[in-house]
Specification:
Citrate Synthase, domain 1, binds oxaloacetate ion, citrate synthase activity, binds acetyl coenzyme *A, Cytochrome p450-Terp, domain 2, 2-MeCitrate/Citrate_synth_II, 16 helices, mainly alpha
Length: 372
């Protein structure tokens, strides 16, 4: 029995949601390039859950369902106010709030297909409200209630800032949500599938997934990228900084990927957005610095920039707090997690691999009075 460290290259399930073939990414057959340029986030949510793009009527319906379900129970808001928010990372707050939501909502443990779809709508709608409410509360402000006539990205910006977004902000957030929505069997999605394959409930699967996304080797990398750019400070420091990190065998956040070799097809869209938004806000140095780092790492380590690399300067130039970058990833990836959870329920088998044992051989039990 040999072990494959990190399960690299292991085909662990069949899925009809997302493909990565020869470094090309598609959601249900539609390339990420087409979707990034032409689809809204709500269209992508519909696509991931139904495996077809919505017609206008279906799109209107899912938009309305999401807007209608955005409010969260007072108990969840009260909970966000109940601890020292200055000491809690928003991903920890989100993980706990989603778990708490599972206690207050109806049907949490009802496993019927239609009930699970209703739960999917509620979770997708409410994740945005929780992230923005936490952000407002820690600024000493009241959460802003969602508006039923706004789209998903519009409501996110409205609830975050207490004002409706400018068209360029709405477009940027909507596109970022489209780009992060799903990614095959990434660590957090796999976590969600492992959890619900025990026939546990949707809230448990999503809570587990948020925990996995939080780590800096996965979704948490986008916040770390911005921390790195700030530490570098000025463009001329970028390459010496990177050289030193590499010499110390430290990771360059936002670089490398388990699956992509030539490049992450989402990165170029975020790069373009970063170029435009940093220019518009007079913060081009973050973009220029990122381009230099990407080039150096590609040439010297053969590693491509991943989705987290340019999203950092995109969100920064939109004035978003750096520790909200990963929660925004979660707001988007909620759609993919839910698609995979529903797919897992539809064709379930317990996920239970084996471990190659490397400990001591069988031995005599040692009574307490004979132990060192
Ligand atoms: C949304 C997402 O989750 S995208 C990924 C977000 N994560 C990051 O950006 C964190 C930085 N990147 C990494 O840590 C890795 O590239 C991962 C976790 C994404 C992929 O990891 P793996 O597939 O396990 O790659 P692995 O660790 O085997 O790397 C292969 C080699 O490249 C090196 N390497 C990989 N990524 C990096 C990096 N970002 N900086 C420096 N070296 C790196 C490794 O040290 C290793 O070198 P070695 O062969 O000399 O030991
Ligand atoms: O697929 C992965 O391993 C990580 C990733 O890029 C994602 O989750 O978007």
């Amino acid at each position: 029995m040999t072990a494959t460290k990190g399960l690299e290259g292991i085909i662990a399930t069949e899925s009809s949601i997302c493909s990565i073939i020869d470094d090309k990414l598609a959601y249900v057959g539609y390339t990420i390039d087409d979707l990034a340029e032409n689809a809204t986030f709500e269209e992508v949510v519909y696509l991931l859950w139904n495996r077809e793009l919505p017609n206008q009527e279906q799109l209107d319906e899912i938009r309305q369902e999401l807007a209608n379900e955005m409010e969260v129970p007072d108990a969840v808001i009260d909970h966000l106010r109940s601890y020292d928010v200055s000491k809690v990372h928003p991903m920890a707050a989100l993980r706990t709030a989603i778990s708490l939501l599972g206690v207050y909502v109806e049907e949490a443990d009802v496993m019927e297909k239609e009930a699970n779809r209703r739960k999917a709508i509620r979770l997708q709608a409410k994740v945005s409200t929780i992230v923005t409410a936490f952000s407002r509360i820690r600024q000493g402000k009241d959460p802003v209630k969602p508006k039923k006539d706004l789209g998903f990205a519009e409501n996110f910006i409205y609830m975050l800032n207490g004002r409706e977004g400018e068209p360029i902000e709405i477009e940027a957030i909507d596109k970022a949500l489209v780009l992060h929505a799903d990614h095959e069997l990434n660590a957090s999605t796999f976590t969600a599938r492992v959890c619900v394959a025990t026939l546990s409930d949707v809230y448990s699967g999503i809570t587990a997934a948020i925990g996995a996304l939080k780590g800096p080797l996965h979704g948490g990398a986008n916040e770390q990228v911005m921390a790195m750019l700030l530490e570098i400070g000025e463009e001329e420091n970028a390459i010496p900084y990177i050289k030193e990190k590499l010499a110390n065998k430290e990771l360059i956040m936002g670089m490398g990927h388990r699956v992509y070799r030539s490049g992450d097809p989402r990165a170029k869209h975020l790069q373009k957005m970063s170029e435009e938004l940093t220019k518009l806000t007079g913060q081009e140095k973050w973009y220029k610095m990122s381009v230099e780092i990407e080039k150096y790492i590609k040439e010297n380590k053969g590693l491509p920039a991943n989705v987290d690399f340019y999203s950092a300067s995109v969100y920064h130039s939109l004035g978003i707090d750096h520790d909200l970058f990963t929660p925004i990833f979660a707001v988007s990836r909620m759609s993919g997690w839910l698609a995979h959870i529903l797919e897992q329920y539809d064709n379930n088998r317990l996920i239970r691999p084996r471990a190659k044992y490397t400990g001591p051989n069988l031995r005599e039990f040692v009574p307490m009075n004979e132990r060192n």
